[in-house]
Amino acid sequence: MSVLPFLMFNGTVPTLRNRLMPITGIPKLLPSALGVGYKGVLEISIIQEFDGTFKIYFTGSDGTADDNCMYLATASDLEGTWSVNPVAIIGKGAGGAPAGRQANCSMVVKSNGFYYCYATNGYVNGTVYLYKSSDGITFTDLGQVINYSAVTGGAGCGNTSVYPFKVNGKYEMIVEILDSSSNIWKLHRFNSNSLESGWTFVNSLPYLQPDNAGAYCGAHHFYDNGLWHIFYHYSPVLGQVLPDYLAYSTSVDLVTCVVREAPLFAIEAHPFSPTDQLADPFFIQTADNKCFLFAEYCSNSGLFQSQIWYWKFNGTFADLIKDTY
Q1: Is residue 10 part of a domain?
Q2: pLDDT for res 7
Q3: Is 105 exposed, middle or buried (0-12, 13-18, 19+ CB in 10 A)?
């Protein structure tokens, strides 16, 4: 493995990138954790329980386009050992999903004692299904909640981000949907009075697209101190589908957005050759006031491969973003 330098910031204003740099380039989850034959681990989401332990949900892939499922790892420390359950909990017959349905592009949140997993049934013409659990392990299928036809020109749903607390009386969701005319993934906003049903398209999010960029997708968003904070991935090349940079933006209303750092990170490590994608960021501040940003490195050439890596900041999110804009 070779590690290349970061894109460095040459000005005087602090950046998230510089503050997340001291501990970086650490592979945290390898596909070997799922056993022989697995090639990819991706699309992570993490819940910290009241006792301080973590449930870590992720998609596992055998390297083909039609055999992805949701898996669960647990840990008492995100930087310590993760215990991985090699048996799928959602998809291909698990978690109430029929035998022929995948669980891709997933997001898990917890609200009022229940766990909700939003996952697509595939990358081609995929739609978003919802699964519910009282223990975060055994899920039941609640059916389809988002169809790409809700957006004009939509051709398939991908990564989904859900904020599990109401803001201005609504739950807010951001979904990436493939645009049939440009053939790139774009981000769109849905909201609802309930986490379980009634999700309605509100508006598209073109302000999240950096200048001269292609696809912009794979979001993780949350609300803090009067602002929406959105981490996501994008392609730096106009018209390009494959995203390989991470970005960070803010918004007061999830209508107009301000791109704060693009790139937040570019591909700077190569865990396998060729590494052509850095994607699906997930941000968490832990109860002991540490910030972690997780994402995966992927190779999409030939048989798909991917690994989960992470970056860390010793401090609160408020400390991390202080004076950066």
Answers
A1: no
A2: 33
A3: buried
